[in-house]
Amino acid sequence: MIFWWPSKYHADYELRNWDALVQTVQTMPHGVFWPLLGARRSGKTWALNAIEAAIGPANAAHVTLDQIDAKKQELPEHARGRTVLLFDEPGSVLFHDTAPEQVMNKGWELNVEGAKQFVEWCQRLKHTGTIVTLALTPAEWHALREVGGALVSSKDLEYRRLGPLSAAQSQRFPRTPTQHQLFEQLPPTWRRNPFLLAEFFRHVLDTPEGNLRNPLSRDDIHKFGKEVIGELNSGKYDYLYHVLYDCLIPEHRGALRMVAEHERPSEDLCRMLLHLGLLMQSDSGEYEIGDPVLADHYPPPVRIHHISDLHFGPKTALSVDAKDNSVQGRKLAKAAGQGPIRDDYLDWLAQLETHQRPHLVVVSGDIAEAGQDDQLEAGRAWLDRVAACLAPHPGLDPDDPRLLLVPGNHDVDWTAVDGPAGGRRPHLAFARVFTGTSWPFPQLVEPPETREPAHQHYRSLGLAFALLGSPEYGGANHEHYGRLDPGLVHDRDIQHLRSAVWKHEPIRIAVVHHPLAQVPSIATEITSYSGLTNGGQLQAALEEQGFTLLLHGHTHAAYLERKGELLIAGAGTLGSRETYERHGFNEIIVTREGQRYKVQAQTYERKGGSFAPRAVEQLERVAT
């Protein structure tokens, strides 16, 4: 059993050294009180109890303001005549009673009169020779600075912030070999706060798995962490409410959100959050969220690149248009830096900062030009290079697939056509090349009656993908050789989509090669097949299942459109020379704050040898 508890001080379980603070609070402050600034659940009450014990109850008294009538400004019996007063919970006199929902939406409503009276009381106590130390949150400090003027001195705040535990301090926490073993496995963010440290230990050591005869696995630690976060955010503790909303002002919350999204807030805000232990700084100077519960509330965004129509083969788009195909012309083109345009994407990807790189890549078909093994093998090798550029994400496990594929009509092997539409042989080459990778894709080589659906779930990210094969009936016979293939998602696949369980992932993304219907583009095409022949049926199923996004390729045109609650994103080609538009791709960014998700889809187009953003669309989802 772990005996550390914030409100029940016990010297034997002390982790910090309070000697310097004990000396300070026995001298007069510049203002009317010494502020002891700390986040909720950081140990402020424990600190006041420790100071009281060090000075002695004859000279110091800990007073909880929400348990006395502060308006009357009468000290309780145990505090009268003491030279050092240690005030706790000043929010009861600084703020009006405010419902939690209002605090979360608008913040605390300042009780200006009550706050001024409290500052004046502290001033009178100072005049009588009484020294006041006030444990308070950043929101309470902000309120007192607003109403107290010169009586509330920022000089008194220096070095009196209750920050995170140091490595040496946290190592004093475990007492037994079992506890030491668990401590060594904990992620660093759990070691910085004594309350969180104690709760993690309590939870693990009170469970059957917590006997720790063997070290816990990484998955065990992750599972226990999620369970502890769930308990902390329950009605018993309401940790997130107290630390994020009760404790901080909106600017602090905005700074935490910016850090999670790899933006740089003001240094003043960062310094405050750093002192409180809610942020930490890497060796490179980058800020990271330093509290595991807040990090779970503000996870890093998930970046998904949607690329399409790579077209490995004779119609590959090149960066130099060599109209002279002579030996000399080819030499000149090579000297001018001629290469596949899709390689510009690889080069651009490699030079991005890690936090700007995608975590997942979706390929919506037409990897090859004609479904030949050599073209598909070249495509696979190129995608291996893409995979090597992807960024890590705390919500992704090492064995999670990072690339997701669907075949396109050009990935059908027309040379293997052997009779009526719907044969399996035209899909063998695609299956042969990509089976053995970790990348999921629809197994069109299997009959629709027996194949498993290609659904990929990333529960920790709140994401799920339905990978749908639309060139099922491509390559009908040689009479129509070279004709655009009909796009159709088999009814069995749509029924699988309707019957699958999607409730655990609020953001659901369908991927298919063909668009639902013909899409607008610069070019005018007269074709037999451009969209799905059963696009309406698929759209209805996606809407019924609450899908957020549909990603497609095929048209070689970047395209964003909202159809009700469904956002449709068509990707431009990254590799074909047959396009009237700039080459490019789409980027999908999924951000989460608590249970609220925001999805942003943005088209990128090639400019020079780089890529620049163009159109953008956003949707929001709330997890239920």
Structure description:
- This protein has 624 residues and is of the alpha/beta class.
- The protein has three domains: 11-157, 3-Layer(aba) Sandwich (Rossmann fold); 167-297, no CATH class; 302-319 and 329-622, 4-Layer Sandwich (Purple Acid Phosphatase, chain A, domain 2).
- 31% of the residues lie in helices and 17% in strands.
- It has 20 helices and 18 strands.
- The protein has helices at 19-24, 44-55, 91-94, 100-106, 112-127, 138-148, 167-170, 177-185, 194-205, 218-232, 239-246, 250-260, 267-276, 292-297, 327-335, 342-351, 373-387, 428-434, 491-499, 535-544, and strands spanning 34-37, 60-64, 84-88, 131-136, 279-281, 287-289, 302-307, 360-363, 403-405, 454-458, 463-467, 507-511, 549-552, 559-563, 566-570, 584-593, 596-607, 610-622.
- Strands 9-8-7-16-17-18 form a six-stranded mixed beta sheet. It has a six-stranded mixed beta sheet with strand order 10-11-12-13-15-14, with no helix packed on it.
- α19 links the parallel β11 and β12 (507-511).
- The longest helix has 16 residues, at 112-127.
- The model is unreliable at 521-526 (pLDDT under 50).
Helix content: 25-40%
- The strand line-up of the biggest sheet is 9-8-7-16-17-18
Poorly predicted segments: 521-526
Number of strands: 18
CATH topology of the largest domain: Purple Acid Phosphatase, chain A, domain 2
Describe the main β-sheet briefly.
Answer: 6 strands, mixed
Total domain modules: 3
Distance between the termini: 35 Å
Overall pLDDT: 88
**Architecture of the largest domain in CATH?**
4-Layer Sandwich
Family: Belongs to the cyclic nucleotide phosphodiesterase class-III family.
Keywords: Hydrolase, Iron, Metal-binding
GO molecular function: 3',5'-cyclic-AMP phosphodiesterase activity; metal ion binding
Pfam families: Metallophos
